[in-house]
Every structure is written in C-alpha cells, then in structure tokens.
Design a protein that fits this description.
66 residues
Length: 66
C-alpha cells in the first residue's frame, strides 16, 4: 500500500528533523527553547507512530514498520 509506505517515510523524516532541531538548540545556547521543542515534537511523533503500529497489528492489517 503506497499510502502506508509514504506515511512511514514521512514520520521518519519528521523524527530526523525534530532530532536535528533538538541538537541545534543545545549547540546554540540562545536557542535552548528550540531543543526542548524539538525533543518534545520528536517524542510526540514517536508515540504517534507507535500507536499506529499497534493499531495496525491489532486490526490484522499490514504493519507500518515494514
């Protein structure tokens, strides 16, 4: 299913972007707020993905994590 693979790649890109924002925020002390925002968004995206995978597994559909 192309939609599921597209969503998987989109979530991976979001995770990478949010992680990069967090690292940049810690490297530039004036942007410490950016680090917290990046890590919070990273965590929220990872939790969302985890729930999607669990929902997919419980319904018997193909896994998103493939």
């Amino acid at each position: 299913m192309p939609y599921r693979h597209g969503m998987k790649y989109f979530l991976i890109v979001l995770l990478i972007v949010f992680l990069a924002l967090g690292i940049v925020g810690f490297l530039v002390k004036a942007l410490l707020w950016l680090a917290f925002l990046g890590f919070i968004l990273f965590a929220l995206t990872a939790v969302y993905w985890w729930f999607r995978v669990k929902q997919s597994q419980s319904s018997g559909a193909a896994e998103i994590a493939d």
